Amino acid sequence: MTETERHDYDVLVIGAGGAGLRAAIEARERGLRVAIVCKSLFGKAHTVMAEGGCAAAMGNVAENDSWQVHFRDTMRGGKFLNSWRMAELHAKEAPDRVWELETWGALFDRTADGRIHQRNFGGHTYPRLAHVGDRTGLELIRTLQQRIVALQQADHAETGDFEARLRVFAECTVTELLRDDDGAVAGAFGYWRESGRFVVFSAPAVVLATGGIGKSFQVTSNSWEYTGDGQALALRAGADLVDMEFVQFHPTGMVWPPSVKGILVTEGVRGDGGVLRNADGERFMFRYVPDVFKGQYAQTEDEADRWYDDQENNRRTPDLLPRDEVARAINTEVKEGRGSPHGGVYLDIASRMAPEEIQRRLPSMYHQFRELADVDITAESMEVGPTCHYVMGGIDVDPDTGATSVPGLFAAGECAGGMHGSNRLGGNSLSDLLVFGRRAGIGAAEHVAGLAGRDAGRGAGRPAVRDEDVDAAAALAVAPFAGAGTDAGSGENPYTLHADLQRTMNDLVGIIRTEAEMRAALDRLGELRARLRDVVVSGHRQYNPGWHLALDLRNMLMVGEAVAASALRRTESRGGHTRDDHPALDAQWRHRVLVTRCVPGTPGGRDGVVPRVEVEAAERDPMRGDLLALFEIDELGKYYTPAELTAHPQGSG
Ligand code: FAD
């Protein structure tokens, strides 16, 4: 039996971004003992990188805003594939989650009359993003951490121990979920990044909040943690993924110099007045308003410019179409020869706002371009192009509780699927983390409360970790060392394998796809899977990034296959999935999601390092009648089949 450090909790939260912290706070406030595990430093998650803001229909800047308008915008952005129940809960609860943050000490930017300021973003009818300059995620994480410290201080006052009910295990990577004999989740296996020592957590409820998958792609705004761990852990534990074909390419990443390619340029630049131009100086987005949005966007530059000051009497600029539309438009401009010297287009804020105003509203962007590209954005245009940014697909969860199909396993945040359909609106992630992080915390707490014998520690009702699973997880974790030192120069290098995977995903499963490319991608992923068996790392388990990457590659390969196989199956174009060979929306696909699961019986051990996945279509539940009635039937007719529309009040006659 493997000797390991062991810890026992009621709820184990894997991930310390916005979703994980919000879930942990909720479970702790319900009296449970909670562990938070994160593979990066505490406070360093993607949430901290969020720039533009957090979408919530508070109506502070535009009083006509409401949860119904936010719900409609979210469904339109996702091209009506979203889990409508998640979109409903999100739109209704987001304002309370933002106000709650304020009561916990968050300091948002203010309107002239002292309310939380809200800015414009793509796809949102009204200015809706609560923000702190262009550093909103930093304030969100700081506030949640402060709340956690406050809870720890309360525990200290009561028990003399700061960590009596809430403990953070930072720089600790989970590599496997553990289940009991009945298939219920029982805990997780991981290693300390610094020492390489193993650690086992026992818990009857586990919340996955591990974020996205961007590091499988070559050009991405994401940082090193985004290797699809939560999605792969869930699959291997028996849960399903949905919508994995929908990967968001943010239209504006940096394109130059090469060392910073992909780093995000916030949509807040366009929200605050910045416009896109091609090499001819043309504001090309006016040519790219798709039929489904016709009539909702300005048709002339004059109207678009007036909209920034008078939103009731003018239509919004097409620079602020949903991200999928803008990314495809930029792609076309570059392909047709109207791109910038480094393969992007121009984003111009310099000619539209005073230099000091740019520095005040967009301080991070000013510094980012100054430091990384030697460009002064108060005087020159930025060069920008699409970058892999976010995954709409993820772990299939119950909308109300975050529960997966595996008893005791919950998920929230970017690693969960459904909420955003085929395309996420900017700002809707930060609010998603807060709304569904809280709900997953409640779901996990109620699950634990429902188990018999909770107060008896490891008593009846609590699932038990099996020693053989711990042994298997440990054996798999050390496998990359197996060939080290025996035959110098032989074996696969994890960095080479990673680069090949990223190139495959970028070139074949990127922004525009075809059947031939998907098939080629699946072939190459099969080859990479075979090569992973031969990955060899040298050195010791003490801080060894090559070893860490070798373990992350398992997850990236599983998730890469899920994306490519789902993209092959969906023979239409919708949101973040564009098929050159099936360029139109197809109403027969609107009500169907693609579910990815592990192929049963895939062998374990070294040969089964990366279990195979399979994809099948499933029907989405029809939208509730009162929600359907929030849309005009003419609009729904662009997405729905005539048979589905009979449920609409105007459709029955
Ligand atoms: P994260 O915040 O990424 O947290 C994931 C956590 O999981 C980390 O703590 C990580 O260490 C941990 N983890 C991962 N794998 C493991 C493992 N195996 N073991 C242990 N721990 C693990 N959204 C908006 O709504 N508005 C914005 O303005 C905005 N701007 C953005 C700007 C940038 C540059 C980026 C990259 C994203 C932006 N987004 C924005 C998207 C948003 O920030 C993310 O979708 C969101 O923060 C994800 O939060 P999360 O809690 O799901 O995951």
Short summary:
With 653 residues, the protein is of the alpha/beta class. It has helices spanning 18-29, 46-49, 67-77, 84-103, 136-159, 229-237, 268-271, 301-307, 323-335, 355-361, 363-373, 428-449, 467-478, 494-508, 515-532, 545-569, 587-590, 625-628, 633-636, and strands at residues 5-8, 11-14, 34-38, 54-55, 118-119, 129-130, 166-170, 172-179, 185-192, 198-202, 205-208, 241-242, 247-254, 275-277, 345-348, 382-391, 394-395, 409-411, 592-598, 613-619.
Biggest sheet: strand arrangement: 7-3-2-11-18
- Return the average pLDDT rounded to an integer: 93
Biggest sheet record: 5 strands, parallel
Low-confidence runs: 454-458, 603-607
Q: Judging from the principal axes of the Cα atoms, what is the shape?
A: globular
**Number of H- or I-type helical stretches:** 19
Walk me through this protein's architecture.
It is a single chain. This protein has helices at 18-29, 46-49, 67-77, 84-103, 136-159, 229-237, 268-271, 301-307, 323-335, 355-361, 363-373, 428-449, 467-478, 494-508, 515-532, 545-569, 587-590, 625-628, 633-636, and strands spanning 5-8, 11-14, 34-38, 54-55, 118-119, 129-130, 166-170, 172-179, 185-192, 198-202, 205-208, 241-242, 247-254, 275-277, 345-348, 382-391, 394-395, 409-411, 592-598, 613-619. The protein has 653 residues and is an alpha/beta fold. The longest helix has 25 residues, at 545-569. Bound molecules: flavin-adenine dinucleotide (FAD). Flavin-adenine dinucleotide binds next to helix 1, strand 3, helix 2, helix 5 and strand 8.
